[in-house]
Fold each of these.
Amino acid sequence: MIDVINQDITTLEVDAIVNAANQTLLGGGGVDGAIHRAAGPELLEFCRHLGGCPVGEARISPGFRLSANWVIHTVGPVWRGGHEGEAALLENCYENSFRLAIEHRIRSIAFPAISTGVYGYPFGKAAFIAVSVMRRYEARFERIVACCFSRADAECYGELLASDA
Ligand code: ADP
């Protein structure tokens, strides 16, 4: 099942939430900052030992003070106009997050709209990629959540999921 919700991802009761991190994995603004605040300083301490993460890849940590048991940190591409491999890199973020989730027997997972904030990826294009990969993995999870942070964003996912695209 793929659910679309409009909520703060740090409040969700799922096995894993995905963090739209940066390459340092040492915290930042947006959803990354919110996750670090909610998980507590233990998360930063853990992430220091991960040694960063290249764009398109993913790393896993415990959720510490979050309801979620796990945080999967992935680094989305910065949008530079669409001709610098951004789409393939964003697809890799979702793919690699799902692969890590399967390795850790995670059954429910929530994603923010990776790269669509400070990294500037046009929302509709990013959501199209997110939904395509979510559909590929739908049968292997109890619940996949597309966690949006505005009603307009949630409507965009809703329309994509209602279509055959
Ligand atoms: P990026 O650097 O990958 O663009 P951002 O954190 O700036 O990451 O934004 C990614 C998406 O996360 C945006 O759509 C933004 O609205 C959303 N977002 C920000 N805070 C939260 C939150 N607490 N819960 C869910 N989504 C959030």
Amino acid sequence: MRIALFGDIHANLEALEAVLADAREQNCTDYVCMGDLVGYNANPAECLEIVRSMNCPVVKGNHDEDACGTHSLDTMNPVAANALLWTRQQLNEEQCDWLRKLRMVRQVADFTVVHSTLDQPTNWNYVTNRFDAMSNFSYQFTQVCFHGHTHVPRVYVKDSKVHEVNADSVIIEPGAKYFINVGSVGQPRDGDWRSCYVIYDMAHHLIVFRRIEYPLEITQKKIIDAGLPEMLASRLAGGR
Ligand code: ZN
């Protein structure tokens, strides 16, 4: 079983298509989505429909929640809030209802999936260091858990202590627990503009991070043409 784990698509259709094409080429047999299908970029409905049609496990992200709500976005940063107000106009009631019904946490095969962290998943806490990861491990009852939310690919390992691993691939060793951020398809923030996702090769206990190029200029033009904040287009090129 080769599973493609992808998330934080954020309505970037070109990036999503490039990632799914690569996953097919890499002989992935199954797909799991970490959430945040919408928000920021210009193709929320299209990305939602692609993921929905895949009929794969999907967990809810904070932008999915905000896009299908009617609550005020006053506490959010203005650029994200602007994009979410626009996104609300792009989705129909039935698409909103599908987003609303997504679950916060799922167990798939022998691993767990969550958008932010297993420690209070509805609070959308960001895991940016090993101390943040420690609170997650207290609630992680499977050996491996995948997440997203920070848009920065990362592996946290808990053996005798919790440490951070920065590598293109990792072997799952017996006796240790793994909390793995799969990075972002549609808006990477680790300084690399290319889409990021993970392949979990279960038979070989192997995790591989993939970086995929996509036609960036097309995505940027769509953002500008939609009247979304210009900075959402420029940030994509710098991977931030
Ligand atoms: Zn996100």
